[in-house]
Each structure stands twice: as structure tokens, then as C-alpha cells.
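Q&A log
Question type: sequence-to-structure
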Amino acid sequence: MKMADTAVTAGNGQPVPRPGLRERKKQRTRDTLLRSALELFTEQGYEATTVDDIADAAEVSQRTFFRYFASKEEAAFFVSRLAESHFVDAVRRRPPGEAPLDALRQSLVESWDTIGEAIEQLVPLELHMRFYRVIESTPALLAAHLRRATELEERIARVIADREHLDVDADPRPRVVVAVFGAVIRVTERIWSAGDDVSLAALRQLNTAYLDQVEPALTGSWRTD
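Response status: OK
Response body:
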């Protein structure tokens, strides 16, 4: 395969085939719809934004919108799904001898180092981060976000169980460790969304600080007297 026919865009740095002209046009339309949707959700609110609004902003028809997304919610979480898949793939790639919690932490570090570039291929990173605040302040989006987080935890727990050669339905530890990890991520998301700094670096720093406290909080004494 010629170099001109490949593009290094995979999360693991491996070359992947460069899409053809028709596929690139479809990707541009999808990305325009995504950006238009997130901008409108951020500026005027999720509930107040209609599919027609998004299609008009992207200068396409409503029918075209539904060729790419089944609903507003699907468009709202499209980029998040990319980030989640990025993380799950990172967990699968961790060395087999690594302890489960360490594997999750290192996967998060690895994802932080690469996910920004992957997101930027779809929408501006700053827009994606601002939209997270909309999720926290919109009941319908927050409910969907929490539902999706539960589904993601189950996926990751099964990956951890496979790594450790365990039956996830017989041994509770994979689900427990993933639940603890997920709870820390959820707490830091909520605190970060209420702060003044909406950058990826700020969220990453907060994640790290709270994950550092997991073992002391679970196994150590909290009393200072």
C-alpha cells in the first residue's frame, strides 16, 4: 500500500486506510452536523434545539441528518462514544500481569495522551469540553449519560475479567474495581463541570488527584486524632 493511501489516525498509532473521496465527503457532512449540534446545544440548550435547527445550521435537510444519526441524543454522545472506545481499547492493550486498578489508571493516562487529537478530527476539543457542562445541567442528557456510564462499566468489567481469566458473573471483583474507578471519574466530572476551567488538562489533573486517594480512602484510617 502506498503511503499516500494511508493515514495514521488509529489510537495505537498504526496506519489505517485513507478513505476514498465519497467517504471523505460523508465524513465532512457528519462532522458538520456534529459541530452544529454541539454548538446549538451549548448556546441555546439541548431541549430547545430541534433536529431542524441542526440541519439548518449545517445547511442540509432533516432527511440528511437522519442518515447519520437516529436522534438528537445519538448526535449528542457521538464524540463521547469515541472517547469511551478509545479507553476500552487501551484497557485491552495493557500488559497481562498488571493489576486491574493499575491497568485502568494507565489506560486513562494513555487515553489522555491521544484522545484530544482524535476528538479534534471530529469537532473542536474546546467545544466538546464545554458540552460536558450542558450534560450536567440537562436532566435528559444527564440521565442518558449515567445510563451509558453503567453500560460502559459492564463492558470494562468484562474486559478486566477476561484479562484475569475470571467469570465475571461468578467473581464480583471485576465489577467492584470498575465501579470504584467509575465512581471516581463521575465525582471528578461533576466537580470539574462546576468549576471555572473547562480544559481537558483541568479534568485530567482532577482525575489524577482523586484516583491517588482511592487506596488510602478504602484501606486507611481517616481519623487525624
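Response note: The beta strands are 6-8, 15-17.
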